[in-house]
Amino acid sequence: MAIFTSTRAIALAAFGVVAMTGAASAADLPAVQPYVAAAPVAFNWTGFYLGAQVGYGWGEAGLEDFAGDYDVDGFNVGLYGGYNHQFVNNVVVGLEADINYNDADGDIGLAGVAFSSTEFNWDGAVRARLGYAFDRVLVYVAGGVAFADIDLTNTVLGVTVTDSDTTVGWTIGAGVEAAVTEQIAVRAEYRYTNYDDIDTGFVDLAGADIDGELDNHKIMVGVSYKF
After folding, report:
1. Distance CA 89, CA 101 (A)
2. I want to staple 108 with a disulfide (CB 3.0 to 4.6 A). Which of 9, 50, 70, 130 is the partner?
3. Which helix or strand (DSSP H or E) is residue 181 part of?
4. What's the pLDDT tens digit per position in 36-64?
5. 30 lies in some domain
6. What are the residue boundaries of the Outer membrane protein beta-barrel domain, all occurrences included (predicted)?
7. Residue 39 maps to a domain
């Protein structure tokens, strides 16, 4: 009985030592900090990009100082590319160029006395862009110089002149762009372009050139890759 009591006392003493050692070790451990998720990094639009676009254009063409303007419309598809720079205040500036195949055309006839037709071959533009970034959404305006290669056919009093003219105009528009990944962005934009000095090959009674006039509206959608 004495041996059993002694063994029990030793066991209880050992258990007490272990318990005190464990408590002391736990007190020395650092406090567990709660997990805090890292804040998402805002998207930055700075960089080069290259994309493809498709759209529809419509407008009116005619001869300068003559009545009888006519509709010119059709689809277009092309490529665009440029560079954006985003400032710390989320203002974005950039420069962009595009080139498009354009199948817009139209014509008008005046009771057999006159006939006029306009047909696009290609068009393009170099534009400056100014926008504001709402993280992954960019709202922008753009404007610059436009170019187009146009086939013109005009008949006046039995005289027909056919000319292919690369003409220069001005363009302005606005759009919205959204970054769906770190590299891929989609966009939609409206663009107005005016060409008002198109060579027709005709002269008036005073010998002055009769220029063609053409305005064009476009709705374009595109997808681009940011490098």
Report:
1. 37
2. 70
3. none
4. 555 567 899 999 999 999 999 999 887 76
5. no
6. 33-227
7. no
